[in-house]
Amino acid sequence: MSVPAEASLQAVRAELVAAAAYAAAAGLPLDSRALATENLRFFVTFENSQGERFVAEFDCREYPLHPPTVEFISEDRSERGTKRLYPNGFHPTPCICMRYNRKAYNEKGGPHADWRLLDWRLPTTNGIAIDTLALMVSDLDSKIRQSAGRMG
Amino acid sequence: MSAEQVTDGHGGPPTVTVKIQTPRGLWSMDEPKDAKKRPKYPISTKVEQVIADVRSVFNFVEEDSKYTLYRDKEALEPQRTLASYHIKDGTLLVLSVQGGNA
Predict the structure, then answer these.
(1) Is residue B52 in a domain?
(2) Between A27, A91, A127, which is nearest B99 by CB?
(3) In this structure, is residue B67 part of a structural domain?
(4) How far apart are CA A100 and CA A130, in angstroms?
(5) d(Cα A46, Cα A56) in Å, to the nearest integer?
(6) How many domains does chain B have?
(7) Are A125 and B60 an interchain contact pair (Cβ–Cβ within 8 Å)?
(8) pTM over 0.80
(9) How far apart are the C-alpha atoms of A107 and B84, rounded to whole Å?
(10) What is the mean pLDDT of each run of 10 residues along chain B (102 residues)?
């Protein structure tokens, strides 16, 4: 099963209204300028407690049937997924180990064989279900604000 | 009394009106349209009450999640009052919502 790129684009654009409002209020630069059917990506820059910047890429192919792939990348976007690009406090794979991240699933090489992609809207534990792009931004911002240093 | 700490016009305690951005929308004096509460508070109100109210407006019912109110980069302590932070009328606050960890 797959989601047409046009459908994903519409879903992402619709949700970005709330995500962008949240990001703006929280002081998080959000870049969706290149968003298109052939490029279903947007970027959010976070800061940890020491003011270090971390850029997260949200790759929304197959969204909303499947969650985005959320990955930390370098500010110039030439490097991705290395430990030095991750804030402390995340899974040492490295990975954002949440149901809203496609990379966390075993079928995508992640640590969770016990999760199914189709269930991505379930709560990761007993907390709130992180089931929108705005909530993903908020969850990441909350965790990164409290962290210090880099993973590698 | 500063401009942001005005009385309600009826001799009541000073109040302050804030706006709160959440991942589910903005809470203000006119948004969302159907909200049963509005973010206008006596300045002696504790931050925890504001968090409880904004959660109820946007139906953030999960107790195991972490809810924090921020003013810019500053996390507001739940037990402190709005007055202790010198919150100005019209200040935009942010409700941060954190889910669990795997």
Answers:
(1) yes
(2) A127
(3) yes
(4) 7
(5) 8
(6) 1
(7) no
(8) yes
(9) 50
(10) 44 91 98 97 98 97 89 96 97 94 69
